[in-house]
Amino acid sequence: MPIIKNILRQGQAKFQGLQNFDVFKDDEFTFAEGAAVSKYFRVTNFPSPLPAGNSFFSVEGSEFLKNNVELKTEILDRNNNPIFHFPVFNKTSFNSVNISIEVVPRRVDTGVGTITILGELDPNKVPFDIPIEFQNTYNVRVTGLIDIDTEIPNTRPILFYKPPKINVTEVVRNNISGSTNDTSSIFTITGSGTFFGGSLSGNNLPNPSAPDADNTEPDLT
């Protein structure tokens, strides 16, 4: 199984090549309404088709498998790109384990993919002999075809294996809010004034008492 380093990041799975592993018994199954049953394994709740995002399915062994042996699983898309998945150890039943799947569209292609499961048969439980070279190792494999569609909505249920919690903290701080309307005003000043002439004003007016004055009104225009 892949190792989860940080659940807040997108997980990545390495290619294992379980389809090429040399086993003693090889079996296939076909999914029907999300369930697939073989002589050695039972897969239920598998999404069909498998959408983008997070989903889950359940895996259950059989009485022919050796106890306390970790199953090997691999999920591949049509181009053999591995799809990240990991076991959720909060079991829904004594014999089955839920497997969480994470499908990232940019890493997974839509089409027909495969799921492969490896386990170990117990020589004392099967009705046939197992050669020595296939004992104490993974010796049984089951492979099934799966439908992947990363463009459909994900309507899978969300399962909480621990009671969800929420922490609420009050933060008090000052808020400065300005006016939402910016207005501008134009002021016009009107009135009247008196003009005074003289040498300082640049307009030299004639002195009416001067001998040569013509006593006419100056032209100020």
Number of helices: 0
Query: Helix content range of the residues, please?
Result: under 10%
Q: Going across the major beta sheet, what is the strand order? A: 2-3-4-7-6
SSE topology string: EEEEEEEEE
The CATH homology group name of the domain at 18-148: Immunoglobulins
Average pLDDT taken over every residue: 80
| Span of the ends, CA to CA | 103 Å
Low-confidence stretches: 1-8
Shape: elongated
Beta-strand fraction estimate: 15-25%
Integer-rounded radius of gyration: 44 Å
At the fold tier of CATH, the topology name of the domain at 18-148 is: Immunoglobulin-like
Number of distinct beta strands? 9
Structural class: mainly beta
CATH architecture of the domain at 18-148: Sandwich
CATH C-level class of the domain at 18-148 is Mainly Beta
What profile does the largest beta sheet have? 5 strands, antiparallel
